[in-house]
């Protein structure tokens, strides 16, 4: 019996890894191909940024609905639905003849990814409650590895595969199909829902801890997506070629991978995660500060390494908090939905705001000072999230006379 239970858990973990591998390539693989994509679908260059921001908008809109979908149909079926939406969206945007078809496909991609983004922490809380840090570290690391891989191989794939950019985008449907097949045996599993009071919308919206988790998630998302969007331009303005700048941003993501894996494991072993939050905030602050005051190549490289530590560890710590600060997996899913909805809407606004400030001032000083303030605020809300308490803790019993 113990062996059968262990095999089921191993199979579920493999399914989670396959799911995590699908959560970023369909988005990060688009950026390097944006020019031929826009030309092939007749999308005006002035609004080509919609291709990469549409999934983020979908994240924000769909994330709030994800816990309700899971309560109605079950976690496994909701995750399977996310994969179906991802597959349909990938194929639609890959073979779209018009800009509308492309954007509709990207919205479906973002919707499918949003369901999985929100519900994976709930699944970890339910089936791996004693290993939240380890399992979170595994799936987030896989997610980031495939994100970086897609960024690096999109252009070579477009050159090698039939159809050019269409083939390079469509190839990821094979990975999604593999995950779908793996999840089919799990569709019959059903688990009792949490009591209605646990993780209810009213409980979350009135909880200061829930808001601290939400703001920590949102601000670290903003820092990450601003970094991905604007660091190549910033580095180019400091004298680096666009190719070198692109490789440095890729290296930044790779440098963060060990921390992506290690930080949630450490978080799971600590009752309070103050030291981890301070470390994450400090690396962001030093990395951004280095970009503000230095211009030499090696100083820029050091800043990128520090930002890699920050971006790699902050997302996995935020996701681990959803399980560590809740008692029931339904509450973990609910706070995940709330935090990721707000977080990705912030992430969608961030690159536009920073780009606007740079365009107006024609310098990086004000944008970087603003990002330094964001890093400080992220640390403040992270410290509140690090305290050993629960969103769905039962109310304290009144003391007797």
Task: Give an account of the 3D structure.
This protein has 18 helices and no strands. It has 401 residues and is an all-alpha fold. It folds into two domains: 158 residues, Up-down Bundle (Growth Hormone, Chain: A), CATH 1.20.1250; 184 residues, Up-down Bundle (Growth Hormone, Chain: A). It is globular and about 55 Å long. The mean pLDDT is 85.
Helix percentage range: over 70%
User: How would the global form be characterised?
Assistant: globular
Distance between the termini: 50 Å
What is the highest CATH level, the class of the largest domain?
Mainly Alpha
Order of helices and strands: HHHHHHHHHHHHHHHHHH
Number of helices: 18
Strand count, sense and barrel status of the largest sheet are: none
| Range of strand content | under 5%
Total separate domains: 2
Contiguous runs where pLDDT drops below 50 for at least 5 residues: none
> In CATH terms, what is the fold-level topology of the largest domain?
Growth Hormone, Chain: A
Helix and strand composition category = mainly alpha
CATH H-tier superfamily of the largest domain: MFS general substrate transporter like domains
């Amino acid at each position: 019996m113990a062996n059968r239970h262990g095999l089921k858990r191993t199979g579920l973990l493999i399914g989670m890894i396959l799911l995590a591998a699908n959560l970023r390539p369909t988005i990060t693989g688009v950026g390097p191909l944006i020019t031929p994509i826009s030309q092939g679908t007749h999308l005006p260059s002035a609004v080509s940024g919609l291709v990469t921001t549409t999934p983020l908008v979908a994240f924000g809109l769909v994330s709030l609905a994800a816990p309700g979908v899971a309560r109605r149909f079950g976690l496994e079926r909701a995750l399977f639905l996310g994969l179906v939406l991802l597959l349909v969206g990938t194929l639609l945007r890959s073979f779209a003849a018009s800009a509308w078809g492309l954007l509709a496909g990207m919205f479906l991609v973002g919707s499918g990814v949003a369901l999985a983004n929100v519900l994976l922490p709930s699944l970890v809380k339910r089936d791996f409650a004693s290993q939240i840090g380890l399992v979170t570290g595994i799936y987030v690391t896989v997610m980031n590895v495939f994100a970086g891989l897609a960024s690096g191989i999109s252009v070579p794939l477009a050159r090698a595969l039939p159809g050019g950019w269409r083939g390079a985008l469509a190839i990821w449907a094979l990975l999604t199909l593999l995950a779908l097949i793996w999840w089919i045996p799990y569709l019959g599993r059903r688990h009792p829902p949490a009591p209605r009071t646990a993780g209810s919308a009213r409980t979350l919206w009135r909880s200061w801890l829930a808001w601290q988790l939400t703001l920590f998630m949102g601000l670290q998302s903003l820092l990450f997506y601003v970094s991905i969007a604007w660091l190549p331009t910033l580095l180019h303005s400091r004298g680096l070629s666009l190719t070198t700048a692109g490789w440095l941003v890729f290296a930044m993501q790779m440098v963060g991978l060990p921390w992506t894996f290690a930080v949630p494991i450490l978080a799971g072993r600590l009752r309070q995660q103050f030291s981890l939050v301070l470390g994450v905030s400090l690396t962001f602050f030093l990395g951004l500060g280095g970009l503000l005051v230095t211009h030499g190549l090696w100083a820029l490289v050091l800043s990128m390494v520090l930002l890699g530590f920050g971006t790699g560890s902050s997302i996995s710590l935020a996701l681990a908090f959803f399980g560590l600060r809740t008692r029931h997996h339904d509450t973990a899913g609910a706070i995940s939905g709330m935090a990721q909805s707000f977080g990705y809407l912030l992430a969608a606004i961030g690159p536009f705001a920073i780009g606007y400030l740079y365009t107006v001032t024609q310098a990086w000083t004000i944008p970087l000072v603003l990002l330094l303030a964001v890093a400080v605020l992220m640390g403040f809300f992270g410290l509140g999230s690090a305290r050993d308490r629960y969103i769905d803790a039962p109310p304290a019993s009144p003391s007797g006379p």
